[in-house]
Design brief:
The structure holds two protein chains of two kinds.
Chain A: H1 3-11, H2 14-21, H3 25-51, H4 61-89, H5 91-95, H6 98-123, H7 131-154
Chain B: H1 3-12, H2 14-21, H3 24-52, H4 61-67, H5 69-89, H6 91-96, H7 98-119, H8 136-158, H9 162-166
Helix pairs in contact in B: 2-5, 3-5, 3-8, 7-8
The chains are: A mainly alpha, B mainly alpha.
Chain lengths: ~160, ~170
Amino acid sequence: MSLLEFFYWLEYLPLLVAMRSSPWLFPAIATAHLLGLAIIGGAVLVVDLRLLGLGLIRQPVAQLARNAEPLLFIGIAFMLLTGPWLFMCFATKYYYLTAFWVKLVCFALVLLFTLTVRRRVVMGSGSAGAVPKLVAAASLSLWFTVALGGRLIGFP
Amino acid sequence: MPLPEFFEWLAATPSSTALRESHYLYLAILAVHVLTLAVFLGTAIIVDLRLIGLVMTRVPISQILSRLLPWTTGGFAVMAASGSLMFYASPVDKFVNLFFRAKMAMLALAGLAVWIFFRTVHRSIEGWDNDPVPPRAARIAGGLTLLLWVAILVAGRMIPYQQYWLG
């Protein structure tokens, strides 16, 4: 079975066919996905802005990062719970969209980056020099690409 | 001139027609509107959850308001500008859209709630600035505006489904 055939199989599972026939299920899940974007946006921005010397500069980075982490995980959970359904509804359409694959790769990269390098930098006792700013720039550009990819694949 | 006729006149202006028919420009404005949600609502969620006493409980509320709220209002300004352009592109369709009307009504309510917060509850902030869980009035203000923003998001996301659902 090729990947395209697998996507086709997913899209035409009885559950997905039923989901598409509902007039409100897809919009409802897409709305929850959008709320996830906002939650991640807040949790990421509050820490990355701080790394760039903006936002809540009087608080230690580690304290902000610890406070924002539950919110970040809630946002990511929103995405992991809603995204696959949105994908499976129109899997064969996304197969042909470069923006979808870019989004998927960047999402995997930013998760990996956030849980390893960024986590070590923000939870640690503070790194000097350009490191925090580079970490913030990498995190913000990856998340931005994920969000933009998400918007682009939704267009008709 | 009554509003419906004004919007029909607006829709017939060359720039409104051009924007409506531009396709890519319109989609670019829509993308800006949606992506800025991460800045506007993202920071608003943190401000409101802090007022409720659920996140950043060790950060003084005055710090959150002075250092984070500018990002919220900046994001809001971009969303208002891009949203206005989208309205300008199809004023008649938007005017008759029930989700759009609900969204505008709730935006007015949210604005009112924020105004009341700064005119009343916020006046006494020195007394509870460092409280992990602020007084009831502040928690209500945070909860109410958060609910309104989420309801506005839902209504906004539903605008394209008006014809699909309600004919």
